[in-house]
Amino acid sequence: MGRVTIRRGAAPLLVLLALTGCTSDEQPGVQVGDVTRAPVTEVVEAPATIGARASATLRSPAQGTIAKLYVREGDHVRKGRPLAKIRSPQAQDQLKQARQASKTAEPASFTPSVSLPSLDTGAFDRKVAVHFAKARKEAKKVKDAQARRQLLSAIDLAQAQHRAQTRALASITTQLNRSISGILSGVTSGLSSSMASLQAASKSQAKAAVKAAKSTVDSLTIKAPFSGVVTFGRASGGGGAGGGVESLLSQLPGGGQLPSVPSAGSSAGSPVATGVPVSAGDPIVTVTDVSELTLDADVDETDVLLVEKGAKAEVELDAVPGATYTAAVTGIGVTPMEGTTGGVSYPVRLRLGPGTFDDGSRAPTPKPGMSAVTRLTVRESPSAVAAPASAIVSSGRESVVWAIRNGVAERRVVKLGAQGDAVVEVLSGLSVGERIVVKGADSVRQGQRLP
Fold first, then answer.
1. Residues 6+ away with beta carbon under 8 Å from 91
2. Start-end ranges of CATH 2.40.30.170 in the chain?
3. Separation of alpha carbons 38 and 36, rounded Å
4. Staple 232 to which of 27, 111, 219, 272, CB 3.0 to 4.6 Å?
5. Nearest Cα to Cα of residue 221 among 94, 92, 66, 57
6. Residues 6 or more apart in contact with residue 405 via CB below 8 angstroms
7. Do the bridges between strand 393-395 and strand 320-332 make them parallel or antiparallel, or are there none, so unpaired?
8. Rounded distance, CA 419 to CA 311, Å?
9. Topology of domain 56-101+218-286, per CATH?
10. How far apart (Å, rounded) are the C-alpha atoms in residues 439 and 401?
């Protein structure tokens, strides 16, 4: 549908102007009239499409078969009502595998410890003691008392030195163990921290896999996200991705409530029915909330800056000839769209109101997807200084009117406000009661005599 801008005036020319006949034989096409006050309304026309308040296509969360359908095509359902149930042994197996993997991911304690064993000198000490005892026994056999005393004293001294050396060796071993423990503590603390982080990450990953698998199993019962009308999708009837715990990690919690995105199997697959096989992502049912209808209009770039939130509009539908619906602007988009003719338009959202036929009877409620024409009221002036649109001559960026002063044509640059298709609002350059050329203005020249 092409984009057309229509400027409408609320007052007819007969009310605004007292038109005269031809001014002379030489100017048969020139007519003049008076400037007066009248309401002027500017309207922008744009093609539009009827939309619903919300629509969601619910898809199968896993490969399986349709076990049960709780609704029929066209049923009105409430939020949370079960719509369909999918039987999926694959999803159940994935949940089982994920739970088993979660159990094996429990973190184990890790406390590194290194120490030197203490030196056991007991056997050596006993042998030394035997030797000292034998030496003492032999020393006592010496008859010279002085020599005997000297030998025994030397033996006692040697034995005392041996005991001191044994104690020193034990002390050295203890100190060495302490040094080794201190060094290893600094080296292994980073390793212990890394091991703990890896174990915690493994546990979190396993928990996420369980959560994703459980969400998929829970969503095998597809429920209405909001109240609306049911429409069945079409299942592709085969295929499916591989299972396993790894595939679960890429799934987001939410299961089968996937976004409403067209799929390859949505138009040429098997009808949705009990027992039909489905693949993950196959559309099962669409819920459409028709409690409030909207309009998506494409407004040309030359007009969109005139449109404001809350602006009123009249709507006509191809499907309901002779009926007019009310509407109001609720939002104006900022993302441009290229039209089929090469121009640029912007989306404007409206809330659709009730409709009536020309005889005053109530019009039927439209359905989403129907095409429409929207006429948006962008500017209104209830008591404007008004001139017919035919009196305005464009000269570059200026708007010019030929006023008649003392019987002579005078060029006036005017500033326009609201612009209807028949009359326009003049903000400056003219006054109520002045006479202007309303027909044939293109042929008038400065200083030309006119009655």
1. 61, 62, 64, 213, 216, 217, 220
2. 13-51+291-443
3. 7
4. 272
5. 66
6. none
7. unpaired
8. 16
9. OB fold (Dihydrolipoamide Acetyltransferase, E2P) (2.40.50)
10. 11
pLDDT value of residue 46: 94
**HSE-up of residue 423 (Cα within 13 Å, Cβ side):** 29
Question: What number does CATH give the domain 13-51+291-443?
Answer: 2.40.30.170
* Side chain identity, residue 366: P
pLDDT: which is higher, 431 or 21: 431
Exposed e or buried b per residue across 55-87, where buried means at least 16 C-beta atoms within 10 angstroms of its C-beta: bbbbbbbbbbbbeebbbeeebebeeeeebbbbb
Helix (H) or strand (E) holding 337: strand 337-338
CB 187 within 8 A of CB 117: no
Quick check: pTM over 0.70?
Answer: no
CA dihedral (130, 131, 137, 141) in degrees, to 10, reads 160
> In this predicted model, what pLDDT tens digit does every residue of 78-127 receive, in sequence order?
999 999 999 999 888 888 888 887 777 655 555 555 555 666 677 777 88
Supply 209's token pair. Answer: 């896999």
Give CATH 2.40.50.100 domain extents, the chain: 56-101+218-286
Structure tokens at 322: 């002779």
The structure tokens 């928990």 sit at: 207
Residue 244 CB partners (closer than 8 Å, separation 6+)? 94, 97
Crossing angle for the helix pair 145-218 and 89-103, to the nearest 10 degrees = 160
Query: Would the pLDDT of 71 be above 90?
Result: yes
Partners of 9 in the β-ladder: 40
Q: Does 43 score more than 80 pLDDT?
A: yes
